[in-house]
Design a protein that fits this description.
The complex is a heterodimer of chains A (306) and B (536).
Chain A lengths: L3 E12 L2 E12 L3 E5 L6 H8 L7 E6 L8 H5 L2 E4 L11 H12 L4 H10 L13 H13 L5 E5 L7 H16 L3 E5 L3 H7 L2 E6 L2 E6 L1 H6 L3 E7 L11 E8 L5 E7 L4 H10 L2 E7 L3 H10 L9
Parallel strand pairs in A: 3-7, 3-8, 5-6, 6-7
Antiparallel strand pairs in A: 1-2, 1-4, 8-9, 10-12, 10-13, 11-12
Helix pairs in contact in A: 3-5, 4-5
Chain B lengths: L6 H37 L3 H10 L5 H5 L8 H34 L2 H7 L6 H27 L4 H28 L3 H25 L8 H6 L14 H19 L24 H29 L1 H10 L1 H9 L4 H40 L2 H6 L5 H35 L3 H12 L1 H17 L5 H20 L3 H4 L3 H4 L11 H24 L6
Classes of the chains: A alpha/beta (306), B mainly alpha (536).
The structure holds adenosine-5'-triphosphate (ATP) and magnesium ion.
């Protein structure tokens, strides 16, 4: 068997007149934490539901553990645990009872891990689920999924509503599971979480994959911002890989330069600035936020990263 | 910002989100009266026929079901009697539905929190909900009165009757508003409202049969006490529902002021942190979810049936006391037992039909619960486990079937047991249990309908309640309106036989209902296997 636990190719899905997925690709390898990102309505939850055999694709292919998620749903499910984005638990049952029931659905529960996770997530398991706050409800779903020995965890926005302290616990626990070889598909809007956990990310928009790769890969394909003050006017015209050049002069007659440069062009650009006599120089690598904002907003420069 | 700031805004929101239901209720109730009026007016087209109506009813027995209607020898009285059952339950249920929708239900789903955070005062949602629901029942009442006038009933009497009906609705608006403050969940609000409606209906029925002051203890009785179309008609009993409405709303506001949004006066307890072995099995979980409903429906149904059954001897006496009928029965030369059998079997069949309606309503509601599972994403989690879709639904349906059987059996036993005690004749127990079994196909066909809808048209689940309403109405009003048999048989409740106790069940009807029902269930399973989850 290949090492792709999840292999999605050209997936399509429409709901009436809405096109939810429009040729989406996604590959998740064994043992990795894969960040799955995209703006609201991009199609993350729909992709996950097709992957779980809950919905049927209109086109393209989806393979889970090498099998067909629609036809072989029941067999494939014994190897995974799924936490939906927005689940209302059984209102009359306590959090602890919900954990037991959910865990039974996911597979075999590890009793000691159950107790440990309840403790680490600081959850009161004897409260009825309808009396929980949103964050606490989310913890119930998470504990149930993380306390089982599933090979694959499918988490759809699992940390919405968690406070920063619990977010930290979540990251630790998922990190530990990865050490043990668990594969995780993590749909999320929280950049810090993705940065801390994900080996690779896929960003989708309007039902298509915009970019996929490691965070370093993604960074490599985005522009750095360069600001400098030089004594002479630098000769930047026509430099390959350099764009958005703005120049001006300050009160003392020095030249102010602002430009953005592709990763490969930064060295040459700094060389040219050096020849012009650098007074001050700042080079800002693209922040993760910029990266996602560019991808979310549909900045086409990123598409090349695929 | 005052505590009632934004009543206008809230009323606007409530209207925009709920106008369809509101209009549907008003139109449906007026529509039933129009239907009743047009058929009765055609059937009883001379004063002589109208005067003969009371005699055709079989004496006082009908008072248990419809109350003691004054002026049965006038067209208006006949309308009121024919409409009696729809009014007894339709109007309270309408008031509960409309009031609960914009109070506890909105609060439970968190919608209210959103609005209260905006510039809307604390009491505004309750004021808006009470206003809209009250306006709707008054509108329905006036429309019903107008429909009676249109079919030539006495105008003053019709208006009086319409206002009486509106008054009954107002009382239940008030009761629901109070219940919505006391308990935390929409389901519990409904439970309280329905229990009160059944209790009020039963108290009125007993009071009416005994002609005792007990009728004054029931809001249903207040409508009858207007003696609308009688010679002694009067307006002043209208003050009772109005006063009750006002007092109940004041109480609701007072209670609202004493609690936080989302909370209730009755606070939940802590409980065990581990699921029992049984709860961890799919069947155990499904049973846990249905348990409360099954017990509630069984107890409610049994109470209703027990009251009816215990009146059996009184019904026989009331009929035999009627000189015209008593003579007719006595002339047959039969024993008192035979006469009792003759009088009681159609009445008991009607009681069993009511029980069948309760059971089918439970089936529709319980299978509707699967939609809750889907909307809450619990179904998604369970289907992402090693459970097949078919297995998941089969488990839930098995519990629904058991629940329906329990509700039906307990109700039939209550009716049979109390009737046997009242008549001092044990054979009634077996006879009524057999009669109840004859209604089983009605549950099968409704099970088929709702399962098929869940599999193929999950968004159209509301259709099931529409079908239920039409089938029940047809069964209640159809025979009295002289509709053709072919049309009557379209209602499952009549297709199994029109007097199952006296004449036995219709075998062909039972077979058709069972076969079609089973086929629909199978189709529902096929549909569920093919469709997307969730459909929202
Ligand atoms: N069951 C459904 N019926 C109809 N339309 C749907 C359904 N599920 C999703 N859609 C539509 O498909 C599109 C993709 O939705 P999806 O829930 O997959 O997005 P998402 O990426 O998970 O968004 P979010 O970040 O908000 O969770 C949206 O336009 C949504 O409205
Ligand atoms: Mg989503």
């Amino acid at each position: 068997m290949s090492d792709h636990l999840i292999e999605i190719d050209g997936l399509r899905k429409t709901f009436g007149r809405t096109t939810a997925l429009d040729g989406l690709d996604l590959v998740v390898d064994r043992g990795e934490v894969h960040g799955f990102l995209g703006p609201n309505g991009a199609g993350k939850s729909t992709t996950i539901r097709i992957l779980l055999g809950l919905m049927r694709a209109d086109g393209g292919s989806a393979r889970l553990f090498g099998g067909d998620p629609w036809a072989d749903a029941v067999e494939l499910h014994s190897r995974l645990a799924y936490v939906p984005g927005d689940v209302t638990l059984w209102p009359g049952l306590t959090g602890g009872q919900c954990i037991d029931i959910l865990a039974r659905a996911h597979g075999q529960i590890d009793e000691s891990r159950r107790a440990e996770l309840i403790d680490r997530f600081d959850l009161d398991p004897s409260k009825r689920s309808r009396d929980y706050s949103k964050g606490n409800r989310q913890k119930v779903s998470l504990v149930a999924a993380l306390a089982t020995d599933s090979e694959l965890l499918v988490l759809d926005e699992p940390t919405s509503g968690l406070d920063p302290l619990m977010e930290e616990v979540f990251q630790q626990v998922v990190g530990e599971r990865r050490e043990q070889g668990t594969t995780v598909l993590l749909s999320s809007h929280i950049l810090g979480e993705v940065e801390a956990l994900a080996d690779r990310v896929s960003i989708i928009r309007a039902g298509r994959t915009v970019t996929t790769g490691t965070l370093t890969d993604l960074r490599r394909h985005t522009h750095s911002t360069v600001r400098a003050v030089t004594d002479q006017r630098p000769a930047l015209e026509g430099m390959p890989g350099v764009s958005d050049v703005e120049t001006g002069t300050d009160d003392e007659g020095r030249h102010e330069v602002h430009a953005s440069a592709e990763p490969d062009a930064v060295g040459r650009l700094v060389g040219v600035l050096h020849d012009a006599g650098i007074h001050t120089l700042t080079v800002t690598p693209p922040s993760l936020d910029d990266l996602f904002l560019q991808a979310y907003a549909g900045d086409e420069t990123l598409v090349g990263a695929r | 910002m005052s505590a009632v700031h934004g009543v206008g805004t809230m009323t606007g929101i409530a209207w925009r989100t709920g106008w369809k239901g509101l209009v549907a209720w008003v139109v449906a109730l007026i529509g039933v009266m129009v239907l009743t009026g047009s058929s009765i007016a055609a059937l009883y087209d001379t004063p002589e026929k109208v005067a003969g109506y009371a005699a055709s009813l079989g004496g006082d027995a009908i008072a248990v079901l419809n109350g003691r209607i004054a002026g049965l020898d006038t067209l208006g009285g006949v309308f009121a009697n024919e409409f009696g059952f729809v009014m007894s339950f339709g109007v309270p249920v309408m008031a509960i539905a409309l009031t609960a929708r914009h109070t506890r239900r909105d609060e439970e789903t968190g919608r209210l929190e959103l609005l209260l955070a905006a510039r809307v005062g604390r009491y505004a949602p309750l004021v808006a909900a009470a206003l809209l629901a009250s306006a709707a029942v008054v509108l329905a009442g006036l429309g019903i009165g107008a429909a009676m006038v249109a079919f030539d009933a006495d105008a003053t009497g019709s208006v009086r009757y319409g206002l009486g009906v509106a008054g009954l609705g107002l009382v239940f608006v008030g009761l629901t508003a109070v219940a919505a403050q006391v308990v935390e969940h929409n389901r519990a609000v409904w439970g309280i409202g329905l229990a009160l409606a059944v209790a009020s209906y039963l108290v009125r029925g007993v009071g009416a049969l005994q002609e005792s002051a007990l009728v004054w203890a029931s809001p249903h009785g207040w409508v009858d006490e207007l003696r609308t179309f009688g010679d002694d008609a009067r307006w002043w009993p209208l003050a009772l529902p109005l006063a009750a409405w006002a007092l109940l709303l004041v109480l609701a506001f007072w209670l609202r002021g004493r609690r936080d949004v989302g909370s209730a006066l009755v606070q939940p307890r802590r409980a065990t942190p581990r699921a029992s072995r049984a709860l961890r099995t799919p069947v155990g979980l499904a049973w846990h979810q249905q348990r409360g409903a099954v017990i509630g429906w069984a107890v409610g149904g049994a109470a209703l049936m027990a009251v009816f059954g215990s009146l059996a001897q009184e019904i026989v006496d009331a009929v035999l006391d009627n000189p015209a009928l008593g003579g007719f029965l006595g002339a047959g030369g039969g024993s008192e037992e035979q006469a009792a059998e003759l009088v009681l079997s159609p009445v008991m069949s009607t009681f069993l039909m009511m029980l069948a309606m309760l059971v089918t309503a439970y089936v529709v509601m319980a299978v509707g619960g699967l939609r809750r599972e889907e909307e809450s994403a619990r179904m998604e989690v369970e289907l992402s486990s090693r459970r097949s879709r078919g297995g998941w639904m089969a488990t839930h349906l098995a519990i629904v079937v058991v629940g329906a059987a329990v509700i039906g059996a307990v109700g039939a036993l209550a009716l049979g047991g109390t009737a046997a005690a009242s008549l001092e004749d044990d054979s009634w127990v077996g006879e009524l249990l057999a009669g109840a079994a004859a209604y089983a196909p009605t549950a099968v066909i409704f099970l088929g309908l709702v399962v098929a809808l869940f599999g193929w048209l999950p968004r159209g689940f509301g259709l099931a309640w529409a079908v239920f309403a039409v089938a029940a109405l047809l069964a209640y009003l159809g025979p009295g309106l002289g509709l053709p048999d072919a049309l009557l048989d379209a209602s499952p409740y009549l297709a199994v036989g029109q007097d199952v106790v006296g004449e036995g069940a219709s075998a062909s009807g039972a077979v058709v209902l069972t076969v079609v029902g089973a086929a629909l269930v199978a189709a529902g399973f096929v549909g569920l296997r093919r469709r997307d989850v969730p459909v929202r």
